[in-house]
Description:
The protein is an alpha+beta fold. Helix content is about 50%, strand content about 10%. The chain is built from 8 helices and 5 strands, in the order αββαβαααααββα. It has helices spanning about 10-35, 75-90, 110-120, 125-135, 150-160, 165-170, 175-190, 210-215; strands spanning about 55, 60-70, 95-100, 195-200, 200-205. The chain has a 5-stranded mixed β-sheet. The longest helix has 24 residues, at about 10-35. The chain is globular and about 45 Å long. The chain starts with 9 loop residues before the first helix and ends in a 6-residue tail after the last helix. Residues about 1-5 and about 15-40 have low confidence and may be disordered.
Amino acid sequence: MTPAEPRDHPTQQRRTLGLVLAVTSVAALAAILFLPNGSEDRATHVFNTDGRPVLGDPKVGAEIVLFSDYKCPNCQAFERTHLPLIEQQLVRTGQAHVVFLHSPFLAPDSRDAARSAECAFRQGNAQFLKVNAALYARQGSERDAWATPELLRDVARDAGLNLQAYDACLRDRAVDTQVQLDLDQHKAAGMKGTPTVFVNGVRTPAGVSEIREAISRTTPPRL
């Protein structure tokens, strides 16, 4: 009788599967954040960024436009991994500034989170940056409706917002209009996912070196 071939123990199989999934997830993230520009991405898009949330001085350096959705896991990864490097190496050195535009497409509470951040912005740019970071820090599963009114109000309170003004802002239809205007700009550029980065109007992979290269070969578009 031929001896049976050895089989992996169930625990080892689970560990192997977990490793494969982890590697696949990292590869997928890299593909999204560092996907080389296709021919359709080489056009220069002109976005209306006047009076929008910004990291850095909007009058200094190249314009980096970031479209994002607070429920998007890759947007959270960009916020945690890439944005600090962009701030340190490009914004603080006067080479660029980052403009934040909403693209809440994943679920209804994506728009709720965007409206909350927009109301934070109505109380100041610094307040927006606090809420922006806090929403990614408290991001739940993409499949769950985690951006509830209660959580969003807790974030606003922790960021030091005036809650009476915040509550009134959420009832203002102009907030919905602004969120939709941002989303419409993203769609008009032919984009269907987030995060999306444009440097001086040109679609660019999200890495610091790629953004720095794009800064060197583009000029800021004008409305």
